[in-house]
Structure formats: C-alpha cells, structure tokens
Amino acid sequence: MTPESSPRSRPLTALMRGRSSHTDSRVSFAELFFDLVFVFAITQLSHYLLAHFTVLGAVQMLMLSLAVWWQWTYTAWVTNWLNPEKPAVRLMLMGLMLLGLVLSTSIPEAFGAKSWLFGAGMAAMHLFRTCFALWALRGSGQQANMTRILAWGLPYALLWVLGGLAEGQTRMLWWTLALLQGYLAGWVGFYTPGLGRSSTREWDVSGEHMAERAGLFVIVALGESIMVSGATFSDLTPGVWSTLAMFAAFAGTVAMWWIYFVANAQAGNTTMQVTDDAGRLARSVYTYIHILIVLGIILTAVGDEFLLTHPGDAVTPHVALSVIGGPALFLLGNLMFKTVVCGLPVSHLVGLGALGALALGSGLMSTLTLALLTVAALLVVAVWESRVTERQLA
Q: For the whole model, what pTM was predicted?
C-alpha cells in the first residue's frame, strides 16, 4: 500500500476523529455513559453463574460473556474511528445503549423464555452499529473495511436470531457458530470474496484510545465486583467472620486493580503509541486477550459472594473454582497481555504457581482462609511487578 492510499493520508469524513493531537484520542463522556449499560450486563452475568453453577451453566455463562464482550469491543473500535462529540455519533451510542439495556435484561433467561430477545438484541446491536459506521465512514480509508464487516455481520446476525428461536442443543449450536464466526472475522481480516481482506495497518487505530477504553472496561468489571460485595455484606448480620470476609473481598479487588493499572496498563499504553502496527496489537491484546481478564473478574465476584455468605465453611469444589479460578484467570490474562506488549512477567508465573498450590490444598481450608491466602498471592504479584515496571520506566 502506497503512502497516498494509506488511511491516514485520506481526508477524514465529518464524523471521524482527528489524529493530530492527544485530545483527539481522549475517551469522551458519551463513551463513559455508554459503558454504564455494561455495569448492569456484568452484574447479570455474575448472577447467572451464581444461579446456574453447573458445567452447563458455566458454559452458558461463558457464551453470554463472550457475546456481551463482543458488543462492547466492536463499539470501542467504531468510536476509535468516529468522534463521539458529534451529535450523530452520540445518538448512535444512545441507541446502542437502549438496545444493550434490553439485551442485558434478557440475560437471566437467555437460554430459556427470553432467548428470542437475547438473539434479536445481539443482531440488532451489531447491524445498527455496522450500518451507521459504514454510512459515517463513506469516502474514508475505512469504507472498504466496514463493507467487509457488514458482509460478515449479516450471517452473524442471522445466527443469533436463529438461535434465539431454536430450542435446547440446537440453540447452543447456532450461538456457538455465531461466536466462532464473530471471533474469527477480525482474525482473518474480514476476508470477503471479491473484496479481499483488511490489513491491520489499514485500520488506523489510535493506540492511546484503545488502551484507555480497555482500562475503563476493566474498571467497570471491578466496580461490579465491589457492588456485589457491598450488596451482599449489607444483608448480613455484622460479625467478625463477615467483616474479615468483606476485607478479603475488598483487598482482592484492590490487588487486581493494582496488578492491571499500576503494573501493566501503562506498559500497554506505551507500546501502543510506538508500535508500527497498532491495529494488529490492539486486535491481539485489547480485543482477544482482555476477555480473559474480564472473565477472571466476573468469576472472582462470584467467589466473593460465596466468601461473604459462608466464610467459615469448608471449601467445596465450586467455591475453590471461583475463589481461586477467578484470580488465576485474571492473572493468566494479564500474563498474556504483558508478554505480548513488553515481555514475559516472571511475577505472574510465580503467582499462578502459588494459586495452583493453594488449589491442591484447598480442601483442608475454610473459605475465608483460602480467600486470604489468594489475596496474599495477588498482592505479592502486584508489588513485585509494579517494582519491575518502575525500573523499566526509570
């Protein structure tokens, strides 16, 4: 691709973000307002797992989480190109918020009586956003890319609708195909016969904006964890056990915030600003890898619920899975994130090893003891990695 044909060399449309200053890359208040819907969605997802803590329930929650994450991340990509300060783009975000709110209300019965509503909501959000973006980006370097996305989006939307109207295993099949197609699309550059594929270098990504958007979603997920802990604790009779359990839940949230924002997020932001292919890096770390981080936080919130309601009970397998599995999944996501952006973090490997050792001995502990030891492991990783980061930035 010659310089004359690159996205940056083509004129911006009236609704596109500029790329000339730091201000152009800032996350807008409209985007923050849009994220509020996903606070509710994440709460619904954690409650779904609490109500269906079985193998099938976990698979269903995973599918719903992947679907919700895809709605958010596609919107983040669109607002990386479009300017939310423009009235038309703001109205698009408000329309997506309304559709997202309806979608979130259907999550508890997404595999039951409201499957049709969830499927229709997924299809409507995707087609509305893609069609608007195609219109807004016409004549720009992103027009061909959005045309390919729409070509993939039509069968994607149909699969969600078909699943919503189906029953049982057939519904699972349709929605599994929808998720596979959605997650595969970006990885193959939305290859479309007759139109070719999109190159990540053509995506003209603002790395600073993508890093900030991903960080804000992590804040949303951590905020939901605090909400679950606070709401559960408020319904309990105050006592030593419940207070210690509340401390452990809060400390665990703080440790996860510390690991992500103090130790890792800045490294990602810095690398995004200097890489010569921000589109490829954003696709890898902020579109795919970050889902592991978010899933880890959601599972940890479920573990906090078990911790607060039964702190002195012996650890059962499902309690161990959430109390240890959530932080482990979160650490794994952070390990992959930091490995891609700046190198393998040894602290995360040690932390995962410590959590594995705790899992082996969890049957001999109370839920509170297991939670406190898990928090201790996370805090060691947080302090260790933040010191490594300080030395790297010095």
A: 0.91
